[in-house]
Design goal:
The radius of gyration is 12 Å and the shape is globular. A 3-stranded antiparallel beta sheet has the order 1-3-2. Strand 2 and strand 3 (52-56) form a beta hairpin. It has 4 helices and 3 strands, in the order αβααββα. Helix content is 41%, strand content 15%. The chain has helices at 5-10, 21-24, 31-39, 57-67, and strands at 15-17, 47-49, 52-56. It has 73 residues and is an alpha+beta fold.
């Protein structure tokens, strides 16, 4: 299991609303940060429903894994 797969395993849905990313990530991400990254095309794949933005859990976890750095050792 990768370092962020536990987030996916314990989330009750297949999507994460942008407003819930802080809860999903344990405070590692903020909705405003993702909004800013989305606006410059660097955020994770996303969808919309009306005015609400959401992220598929698999895509969000994959994006987090690509951006994370871990100390060696």
């Amino acid at each position: 299991m990768s370092d962020f797969q536990f987030l996916k395993k314990h989330w009750p849905s297949g999507i994460v609303a942008r407003t819930a990313v802080a809860e999903f990530s344990g405070g590692l991400l903020d909705a405003k940060t993702l909004a800013n990254l989305d606006s410059i095309g660097e955020g994770p794949p996303r969808g919309t429903l009306g005015r609400k933005v959401f992220y598929p859990v698999d895509a969000l976890v994959e994006w987090m894994e690509k951006r994370a750095t871990f100390p060696k050792g």
